[in-house]
Design brief:
The chain is mostly helical. It has helices at about 1-10, 15-30, 35-50, 55-70, 75-80, 85-100, 110-115, 115-130, 140-150, 150-160, 165-175, 180-190, 195-205.
């Protein structure tokens, strides 16, 4: 089902869909995640990734690295990015938070030009630079939460995670310790079902 749904939404060929399975296997190993859990997450969040075209799987992997570091669900991170896509939306977002901070914390133009997890990473960096959530009063937390449209728990998680940890997790996904794309695709072809393909590529990568 995963392969057929990927092909339908992203317009990928059978070979390209196999490469998506390989990328999921790499991601599951790099992030120490259960391969079936990751595949289910891909199925659930595939439509949110469709806007990035054939780069959707890469964005999904990067969002998973951020989710692993922050404990925020992938869908919530994707939704934060996707609701700030126009200059009007980013201008309102930046204006509200800049007013609360009393300084130019966010640049609306920069925010509107960034895509996917880079946008969320920028938001996390600027929030962390402008506010000390650990020492903040409940009323101020509610005010910022409402202005940003982000739950208080997610605000704390987003700014509490070390961005270096996010970067390390993302780098691990593309690490050269794993087998080559060609090898993983060939191994996956030897299996028949979607689940078997995913498990086979994960096992092949793990045994490098």
């Amino acid at each position: 089902e995963s392969v057929s749904k990927t092909s339908a939404i992203f317009g990928t060929s059978a070979l390209e869909s196999d490469k998506y399975q390989k990328q999921l296997a790499k991601t599951s190993i790099a992030l120490n995640m259960n391969v079936n859990q990751l595949n289910n997450s891909w199925m659930a969040n595939m439509r949110n990734s469709a806007v990035y075209g054939k780069q959707g799987i890469d964005q999904f992997s990067k969002f998973n690295a951020m989710a692993k570091a922050t404990t925020i669900e992938v869908g919530a991170l994707q939704n934060l990015s996707e609701r700030l896509t126009t200059f009007e939306e980013t201008g309102t977002f930046a204006g509200r938070l800049n007013a609360i901070a009393g300084k130019d914390l966010f640049d609306a133009v920069t925010l509107s030009t960034l895509e996917g997890e880079e946008k969320v990473k920028y938001i996390a960096e600027r929030l962390k630079a402008g506010f000390d959530f650990a020492e903040m009063s409940p009323q101020m937390l509610r005010t910022i939460s409402k202005a940003a449209g982000v739950e208080i728990a997610d605000l704390k998680a987003l700014t509490g995670a070390g961005l270096e940890d996010v970067a390390k997790r993302q780098a691990a996904i593309t690490g050269d310790r794993l087998k080559t794309d060609r090898e993983l695709v060939d191994i996956a072809k030897q299996s028949t079902t979607s689940e078997e393909k995913l498990l086979a590529t994960q096992e092949a990568a793990r045994n490098t």
